[in-house]
Specification:
The chain is α+β, with helices and mostly antiparallel strands and 148 residues long. It folds into 2 domains: 1-29; 33-146, no CATH class. It is built from 4 helices and 6 strands; from the N terminus they run αβαβββββαα. Strands 1-2-3-4-5-6 form a 6-stranded mixed sheet.
């Protein structure tokens, strides 16, 4: 009888292990290596991750799922590379972007659809650049205004 009980316990433990592994692979987000994979998951708003490695920065995307009629994507600035922007101070910051379900997009391209510390940081960079541009060209603006 002891051999039968031991076999039942071993079988029970194996079933639990198989169930845990199956749940992990079923519930874990897909890890996309191509943008087409990420876009396909974004259209369906199914959990997926993708790293968009651009020339100025590497962005991490995580599809969180549906929130009402929108699909929420968390965007993380992973690495700021050498560029004209002062992005380094925002490395590791995140924002959540909400898109209409069925529409793939690069989340960091339309900040109006996003909220969070990363959005605020990116907006401050844009405002600072605009301010510097205006200050550098104020004489030209003045001449144009006076010529009317």
């Amino acid at each position: 009888m002891r051999g039968v009980d031991l076999n039942k316990r071993i079988l029970g433990v194996l079933i639990i292990i198989v169930a845990i592994v199956a749940l992990h692979y079923t519930l874990a987000p897909a890890r996309c290596t191509e943008i087409s994979c990420f876009e396909a998951h974004m259209i369906k708003c199914e959990p997926a991750t993708y790293i968009n490695d651009e020339s100025e920065a590497a962005w991490g995307y995580d599809i969180l799922g549906n929130s009402g009629i929108n699909c929420e994507v968390e965007v993380t600035l992973l690495i700021a590379k050498e560029s004209n922007f002062n992005l380094r101070q925002y490395e590791g910051e995140k924002m959540v972007c909400s898109y209409s379900s069925g529409q793939p997009a690069y989340p960091e391209k339309n900040l109006a659809l996003c909220t969070g510390p990363l959005k605020e940081g990116l907006q401050s960079i844009v405002i600072e650049k605009l301010y510097k541009y205006i200050v550098a060209n104020i004489a030209d603006f003045r001449e144009e205004v006076l010529s009317y």
